[in-house]
Amino acid sequence: MTVVVQLLILILVLIGTSFSILGVLGLIRLPDVYARLHAAGKVGVFGATLLAAAVALSAPSTASKALILVALLVIAGPVVSHALASAANRLGIPVKHALRDDLAKARRQLSSAQPNPPPDSPC
């Protein structure tokens, strides 16, 4: 392995670890579920992708496995974050310091558009 490849591996590991640490700090410091999901979804996937790239460079025999892992992370990360945010919204968990909440307007419109159930007929 050349010095350039070793230096690239070291840089990928340092940047990937930094992103992962930032994701953990975001989970601890951010105020609500939605902001925490943003930190975990974006930063965590990017950090893990860089670490997997470093593994692929350091051990070329595992490059195909690392590439599959990166593909699964990139595909599943946003989907899982969206599903969790949607579930939190449906449970009614509020957004702290929201400047606007478009889903609240839609929820009010849906609840006002619900038809009243028909009265029980004495059959």
- SSE run: HHHH
Terminal residue distance: 86 Å
- Average pLDDT, to the nearest integer? 85
Per the principal axes of the C-alpha atoms, what is the gross shape? Answer: elongated
Q: Figure out the total of helices.
A: 4
Give start-end ranges of low-pLDDT stretches.
none
Largest sheet: none
Structural class: mainly alpha
The whole-angstrom Rg is 22 Å
Fraction of residues in helix:
over 70%
Strand content: under 5%
Structural features, described:
The chain is built from four helices and no strands. It has 123 residues and is mostly helical. The protein has one domain. The chain is elongated.
Summarize the topology.
Layout: H1 3-29, H2 33-58, H3 63-91, H4 102-113
Helix pairs in contact: 1-2, 2-3
